[in-house]
Design goal:
Elements (H helix, E strand, L loop, with lengths): L7 E4 L5 H12 L3 E6 L2 H15 L4 E4 L5 H14 L5 E4 L14 H27 L5 E5 L15 H20 L6 E6 L3 E2 L6 H5 L9 E2 H12 L8 E3 L14
Parallel strand pairs: 1-2, 1-4, 2-3, 4-5, 5-6, 6-9, 7-8
Helix pairs in contact: 1-2, 1-7, 3-4, 4-5
Length: about 250
């Protein structure tokens, strides 16, 4: 594996779930982590765990990706604290499930803006720092909902559209950055079971049968695989699963 020790990584949506798992796992490889998320208290809790495990405490930056002013402040804080960053993981996005009642305008705007507007503005704002890295990567955590002809499968239409737009941003960045050192990588995970490093389920995850649901660990390992490929390779990875994947099976 390509050495990751010492790389500076910015992760959005890092206060819980997949973002927290990514932060902890990358910190364990020796990366210096910047945690970004809407709730500072949640970020501090993740930072405490990482500091206890590695002896290095991540920086914590509160940011609401649905609010352009908040994104601008986060970019200013990161630019003010770092001469370069090596990896930006666009993991933050708002969830909105399907329901019979109409969605409010605030809900729709929050979902679209966090996944599309916020993802783009943060990536654009941090691009100068990425360009100063010897190994710059932007990794976007999309969804199987963002794939062409993807199934709704319980997600709302706004979330479905937001993930399609996020996919377009990652692909647009890949084309825009062609011929530069910066790679744009996207992963499309299915529905995930939320497990964290250090939990028994994390250790047991590699032994699951094929019909089992995907977990945070599957995405973490896919990210590690993608960013450690030779620099001339940019990947778009679909993570499928029998339960909750591209064409979900009816698991009893």
């Amino acid at each position: 594996m390509v050495e990751l020790d010492g790389r500076t990584v910015v992760i959005t949506g890092a206060g819980r779930g997949l973002g927290a798992a990514l932060a902890t796992s990358l910190a364990e490889t020796g990366c210096n982590i910047v945690l970004c998320g809407r709730t500072l208290a949640a970020l501090e809790k993740v930072a405490d765990g990482i500091a206890e495990a590695t002896g290095r405490r991540p920086a914590c930056i509160a940011v609401d990706l649905a609010e352009s002013a908040s994104v601008r402040r986060a970019v200013e804080a990161i630019v003010g604290a770092h001469e370069h960053i090596d990896l930006l993981i666009n993991n933050g996005a708002m969830w909105l499930e399907a329901r019979d009642e109409p969605h409010t305008a605030e809900e729709v705007l929050g979902v679209i803006n966090s996944a599309v507007t916020g993802t783009f503005l943060l990536s654009q704002g941090l691009l100068p720092l990425l360009r100063r890295s010897a190994n710059p990567d932007i990794v976007t955590i999309g969804s199987v909902s963002g794939l062409p002809n993807g199934l709704l499968d319980g997600v709302s239409v706004p979330f479905y559209a937001a993930k399609r737009g996020q996919t377009a941003i990652a692909e647009g960045l890949r084309q825009m950055l062609a011929g530069t050192p910066v790679r744009s990588i996207i992963l499309h995970p299915p529905d995930l079971d939320d497990i964290q490093p250090g939990e028994p389920a994390w250790v047991e995850a590699p032994g699951r049968v094929k019909s089992a649901r995907a977990t945070n660990r599957d995405v973490v390992e896919a990210v590690l695989f993608a960013i450690t490929r030779p620099r001339n390779i940019s990947l778009s990875i679909v993570l499928d699963a029998d339960d909750g994947g591209v064409f979900p099976a009816q698991i009893p």
